[in-house]
């Protein structure tokens, strides 16, 4: 039940993004400005840099609350995720060289809001952070390759400036499969389903807003 609900939420959001998201549409039409892509990469780098911290914090809370299986999950994810922000950092430098961008990009406001939301979410119930991880991984698998293809073939971006995206597309296929297999055990309380659905809709809303902010000059 929980797995089916989460998968349906992510699939529906991916379809809405493909049809309606102005950032993805700009990439598909070849009109995306490179300053917008730089803001996207800076926002991605920011979130990736926080992931190890969030995973350690989640593990600590899981241990305090007597959930060894959940703590073990966060330990495993920590081993997978350390250092991925360096990929995005290298991408930003590559993009700046290719298109002669001079201003260092910053994360957009909704990404900062997402970071604070996740911090509070983990404090409240680290099981809900598992849902976020699964959303991020499966959503990347569904749309990340498509985004890279548009950026390379329609916008002229070097694939070397997109390593943080395509590497996660490759890695997250296995990660998402594992996450869907595990989530029923990790988030076993059926009463948690409304909270999972509410939190997923909240951070998908922040993601959509972030994409609009990335396009703003």
Overview of the molecule:
The protein is mainly α and 217 residues long. The chain has a single domain, classed as Heme oxygenase-like (Heme Oxygenase, Chain A), CATH 1.20.910.10. 82% of the residues lie in helices and 0% in strands. The protein has nine helices and no strands. The longest helix is centred in the N-terminal third of the chain and has 31 residues. The radius of gyration is 17 Å and the shape is globular. The mean pLDDT is 91.
Q: Which structural class is indicated by helix and strand composition?
A: mainly alpha
Rounded to an integer, what's the Rg over CA atoms?
17 Å
The CATH topology, please? Heme Oxygenase, Chain A
Mean pLDDT: 91
The SSE string, one letter per element, is: HHHHHHHHH
Spans where pLDDT lies below 50 across 5 or more residues: none
Q: Could you tell me the strand content as a percent range? A: under 5%
**What characteristic shape results from the CA principal axes?**
globular
Largest sheet: none
User: Distance between termini?
Assistant: 43 Å
So, the CATH homologous superfamily? Heme oxygenase-like
Number of strands: 0
Helicity range: over 70%
Report the top-level CATH class. Mainly Alpha
Number of domains: 1
Query: How many individual helices?
Result: 9
The CATH architecture designation is: Up-down Bundle
